[in-house]
Amino acid sequence: MPAPGENLRINSARLWDSLNEMALIGPGVAGGCNRQTLTDADGEGRHLFKRWCEAAGMTMGVDTMGNMFATRPGTDPDALPVYMGSHLDTQPTGGRYDGVLGVLGALEVVRTINDMGLKTKHPIVVTNWTNEEGARFAPAMLASGVFAGIHTQDYAYNRTDPEGKRFGEELARIGWVGDEVVGARKMKAMFELHIEQGPILEAEGKSIGVVTHGQGLWWLEITLTGKDAHTGSTPMAMRVNAGLGMARITERVHQIAMSHQPNAVGAVGQVFVHPNSRNVIPGKVVFTVDIRSPEQAKLDAMRAEVERAAHAVAAELGLGCSIEPVGHFDPVTFDPELVGIVRASAEKLGYSHMDIVSGAGHDACWINRVAPTTMVMCPCVDGLSHNEAEEISPEWAAAGTDVLLHAVLQVAEVVE
Ligand code: HGY
Ligand code: MN
Ligand code: MN
């Protein structure tokens, strides 16, 4: 059976409607979303996604990390399935498309295949990975990491959120502990459609990012301990100020990233100040450094320099200093054959495209360890993401999903 022609396209209006309907669950305060993992809103979004998948004739499987797998049967039940998916959880001030486009775009691919009455040899599976963001429970990509054998389930279940709630208990509370053994599923291939979350594709006027690599990441949680004291009556020379230490280290992180340009980034996004009272010198600060590079040597060098700088600042200020890695993956090279299929699909469909390295981490980065994997990206406005003002156009969403459709049909092998 020849591969479907370039006139086969997804239903863009249906996809856009589904994105808008999902965005109503866990709404943000500024037009985006706050559907953090394992909250009631996440549970509600999962139920909606399950209803949609079942209405599209798929059967839903769930594993013990809450990863969701909706299967469209193939003509050969023994053939390894072709997976596609991403994540439905969002940042606390997240956008409507980060992750969600990859899950609902995959659903739209199945809806379109159904509309066309196509059959494929390989089953097709639409996936929602639990806790990709790592905002509530670090690290990011936690459940795909367990699936890929990076983390144990016990480690994951015992991760706690800022209120001390445990991942395993929260997953049970929302009723999404499945019965499948994590990682037991075998894949022919996995595709992840995702917004770029950076400015390159829009700036270059390209509709499709052919993702060849993903940059590596370290999340280093630093705890500085000083001494709570009065901000008014304590002489400057007597202060043991953990807040000052955090400020100096934050500046050093920026300088270290700038010293490794191009292809290096670094920042501090999460800070907990204790006791966080206006007139108390902080005796303890816990903050996470996020450093990334597509180049292994730069990533390793930045980690060493940040740790050296943190201990040096702590010594200057008489602070205690402990550093715990709470997230890490090395730079990723996606499957060249699948990358070629994505590129050829974009060309067949007449979409402008360019090769790109993913700046953000994705579940695909872990699944790449256990199955041939790659990604398809579409632009986002001003490259903005992890911000409620995140925006894409319906045309960009449709272009990325059209490419996903054709790439998946090629790998799943249309039979009639
Ligand atoms: O941190 C990341 O790159 C992703 O958004 N979890
Ligand atoms: Mn994402
Ligand atoms: Mn994200």
TrEMBL record:
SUPFAM superfamilies per UniProt: Bacterial exopeptidase dimerisation domain, Zn-dependent exopeptidases
Cofactor: Zn(2+)
Residues the entry annotates as binding Zn(2+) 1: 87, 98, 194
Pfam families: M20_dimer, Peptidase_M20
Keyword entries, A-Z: Hydrolase, Metal-binding, Zinc
Family assignment from sequence similarity: Belongs to the peptidase M20 family.
Name recorded for this polypeptide: N-carbamoyl-L-amino-acid hydrolase
Organism of this sequence: Gemmobacter caeni
